Amino acid sequence: MENEYIIEMLNITKEFPGIKANDNITLQLKKGEIHALLGENGAGKSTLMSILFGLYQPTSGIIKKNGQEVHINTPNDANDLNIGMVHQHFKLVECFSVLDNIILGVEPTKGLFLEKKNARAKVMELSEKYGLMVDPDALISDITVGMQQRTEILKMLYRDNEVLIFDEPTAVLTPQEIDELMKIMKNLAKEGKSILFITHKLNEIMEVADRCTILRKGKYIGTVNISETSKEELSRMMVGRNVSFSVNKKPSKPGDTVLKVEHMTVPSKVHGNNAVKDVSFNVRKGEIVCIAGIDGNGQSEFVQGLTGLEKVSGGKILFNGQDITKASIRDRSKMGMSHIPEDRHKHGLVLDYSIEQNMVLQRYWQPEFESFGFIKSKAVREYAERLIEQYDVRSGQGPVTITRSMSGGNQQKAIIAREIDKDPDLLVAVQPTRGLDVGAIEYIHSQLVAQRDKGKAVLLVSLELDEVMDVSDRILVMYEGELVGQLDPKTVSVEELGLYMAGAKRDPVPEEV
Keyword set for this entry (predicted)? Predict the structure, then answer.
């Protein structure tokens, strides 16, 4: 009888210094199914999938494909077995084009020369078939995170893989792109592909998965049929307690203006036009203002201009009444601006530093941590230990853990701990819950509301519609670099918000907002 499982990971254990990432886990993937893998940040999901893809070797346990034991020592071995993976943190060469990244490692040649014509045709055909419209000639360094995600998916489809691993595939996608991806996954499964789908988003699991395996703290909790379970049951199995899906907050009581942006314009690095065009608004003490929009509509460039990562070409930024348009990043930080960045690896952390070093990146020169040019190691360690405990940042070796070795969600929690603990007047939070599990999202949302209730100004930039509606006191919609609407989350519907985000509806935003 033919084996019904295409992949079996049996009794897999993986140990790292100070931590057992996977503790005797068994996972079985049926042919043609979408199988979700659910767990908190640091539960061992990505480690388990990295073992299947040949990035790690298990300490013990075996892997079978179609009933036969296989040894996957490298990603090339995985590709030879038709196993592909879209990683949570993309594996793309930034100075290469989209097309070059897709064919990298399987380059088509004619004699000694690269033959890209057929490859380009195949990429464009796949791109059209699955609604993953990309520009094959654009450089990775110039495209949005959402486009990079699509490039990764096309890379996998180009190789005709039959087992597809998606590691947090929707963490960087807009609601519309997520719907599209869900359709793509269902179509792939119909075509006989088998999909392993790592996610924290229970709605997505309920929508597309056939079965779900839950991990908690490296251990196997159980496998359930989606048709026989609920979101509440899944979250309870994942976190070990009941989780609230709504944000509890009192009405806001806005005070004085903290941030005032006047006619701000930021040039685009991708094309000759401006990415941000004549944007004006303000954020006051005691309120959460959210900039909502589909990825790639100028939000990233706006935040970079606001925080000093990019120069603005026009307009003014006033912070507590002071003009900071040309101020350095450090000066903005010293004046009371905190920034949770969109790309935690590029702008949030030094990955080869320890957690404790990352925690004081913007404060190491303060008397609390430095004396006569020397870092006070004991003070830094005590500070890091406090934040690790307070924000539940999980790592193998505590404050000395190298940040690169941590799960994406715990890296995010470390940044949030550092930025909120600076006690800023303005907290700029860009996609703060990206890649976090429901328990951590609940905690981060409560932290944002707590900052607001302490009289701080919070500017949230989010692609998550639920987050936009639940957390913000005021919504500003950005479309093609302009503010096209100011909405009240208490009265606007998700459908109407979607129309503004798609550019189908617009109202001029009054300057004194």
Answer: ATP-binding, Cell membrane, Hydrolase, Membrane, Nucleotide-binding, Repeat, Translocase, Transport
pLDDT, tens digit (0-9, with 9 covering 90-100), for 220-249: 999 999 999 988 888 888 877 776 667 778
DSSP 405: G
- Is 407:394 a contact under the CB 8 Å cutoff? yes
Distances (CA, A) of 328 to 47, 265, 298, 305, 373: 39, 18, 21, 11, 22
DSSP code of 400?
G
Domains and CATH numbers, the chain: 5-239 (3.40.50.300), 244-336+425-513 (3.40.50.300), 352-423 (no CATH)
CA distance 116 to 167: 29
Please give the biggest Cα pair distance in the chain. 75
Residue whose tokens read 């061992």? 44
DSSP string computed for 278-331: EEEEEEETTEEEEEE--TTSSHHHHHHHHHTSS--SEEEEEETTEE-TT--HHH
Task: Kindly state the tokens that stand for 292.
Answer: 């909502």
Residues pairing with 287 in the sheet: 457
> Residue 1: its pLDDT value, please?
39
What global pTM score does this model have? 0.70
